[in-house]
# Entry
Amino acid sequence: MSNRARPWHQSPAVLWLSAVALPPVGLVLLWIRPGAKVIWKLLGTVPILGFAVAHLFLFFGLRVEVDGTGARPMFFFGARASHFEALEASRAAQQAPESAPRTVEAAAAPAPPTPAAPPYWTDFRGPNRDGRYEETPILTAWPRRGLTRLWKQPVGRGYASFVIAEGRAFTIEQRRDREVVAAYDINTGRELWANSWAADFREAMGGDGPRATPTWHEGRLYALGAEGEFRCLEAATGKVLWSKNILADNGASNLTWAMSASPLIVDEKVIVQPGGRGGKSVVAYHKLTGAPIWKALDDKQAYTSPMLVTLGGRRQIITITAERAVGLVPEDGTLLWEYPWVTEYDVNASQPIVTGPNRFFISTGYGRGAAVVELQPTGQTFAARTVWQNTRMKNKFNPSVLHEGHVYGLDEGILACVDVETGQQKWKGGRYGFGQLLLASGHLVVTTETGDVVLVKATPERHTELARFPAIDGKTWNVPALAGGLLFVRNTTEMACFRIGPQ
# Structure
C-alpha cells in the first residue's frame, strides 16, 4: 500500500477554500478530483454555484429585477451605489465656471437655454396625451447603425418621461435619498438646474423612484413625486413657486406602486389624483397659487393620467380610477358619466384613446382586455355603453395609439393591431416586451423593454419591422418623447437623445 501524500490541490480544505474565494477554481478542482462519484460532484456543484452567484452580487453589482410580467427575472450589472457615483461624476464633469449647472433650493440664474421651436411636447405622451407626434415628419429610412445620437449619459432612477420646451428637456429622477426635478439642454444633455427634496420610494416588484412625468405650461413646470410631493417650479430656474403634498392635503394613502398620474393643466387649474376618500379623489388646484378650486369623487385611484378631451360634444376630463372610467366637468368636477372597469389588484395603468366623436378605447392587462365605449346623452349627463369588448389587446402600463381606424399596442408585450370599429385583431407579432410606443409619420416608434428603439410601419396588413438599434441599457419602461425632430429616451439608469427628423 502506498503512503504517498495526496497532492495539495486534492485536499478538501483547498477545494472548499477555493470554492468560497474563487468559485470557478473550486468547481474545476471538484470535477478533476479523482475517485469522487458523479453524484457527489453534482451535489458539490450546487453550493459552489451559490458562492459564484454571491460573488456576482457582492463584487460585480449583479441585480435582479422583474420584467413587465411581474414573474420573469431580468439581470443587470451595476450596484445602486456605483450607479449614483457615476451619475454624480457625470454631472460634476459638466460643470464649468462659465456655465455651471446648479442644484436649486432657491432662485438661481442658469445658463441661457438652447434656442428652440415653440413648445410642443409639453405633456405626458405629447400635446394631447395620446402618443401622437405631428410637429414635423420623421425619418422612415434609418441608417444601418441606427439614428444619429446627440448625447447619452446616466440618469437617476424612476419611470417618468420627458417634457420638452424652450430648448430644455425636463424629467424627475431618484438620486440616492432625494427626488430631483432636472432641466437638461436638449442638444448637449448638460444639466441646467436641479430641484430636489427628501424622498426615497422603493418597491421590490415595480422598482424605485418617481413615476409621474412633469407637465410644462407657460413657463412653469408642475412635478409630482412618488410620495405625493407636488411642486410648481419656474421652468427657467427651478425656483419653487408653490408646493404641497397632495396625499397629506387630501387625507389619502399612497398606492402600492406610488403616485403615477401626470398633472393636467385645464384653464386656470392643475388637476391631480391623490385618491382621497370623502370627495377628494380628483383635485383641482389653482395653477398659479396652489389654492384648491374643487375636489371630486371617492374613488381609490389607479395609475393613469387625466386627459382633457371632447366627447359627445362636451369638453371634459377623462380618467380611469381603480374601478371605473369617468368623465368630469372641468369647471367644478361634476361627474358626467361612469363606466365600470375592474381589474386585478386595482391596476389601471394605460391611457384611454378617443376614437370618435362620442367613443373611446380602454384597455388593461391581467387578462382584462379592451373595449370601445360609446357615450349617449341623457340630459346634462351621459350613459356609457359597450360597443365591443374582448381580450385581443391587453395594455398593461403601455398605452396604445390610434392610426387610420386601427389601434396599435403591446398586447402583454407583443405588438398587435386591432380594428377599432369591430375589435378584430388584424395581426400580432414583434416581441418587444413591456416597452412603449408612439405614432409618428404613419409609423410606430417602439422602445423595447431592454432599451432598443424600433421602427414599425403602422399598417393593418402585417407586422413590418423596418429598423432597430440598441439605444440605452437596462429595463426600459419609460415612455419616449419627441420634439423638434429629436427622440428622447430614458430608463432607470440611462438617458439619451437621437435625431429622428431630417437635418
User: Anything to note?
Assistant: The longest strand covers residues 369-378. Residues 324 and 340 are 4 Å apart (CA to CA). The first helix runs from residue 12 to 21. Residues 95-124+160-259+261-302 form a domain with the Lipocalin fold (CATH 2.40.128.630).
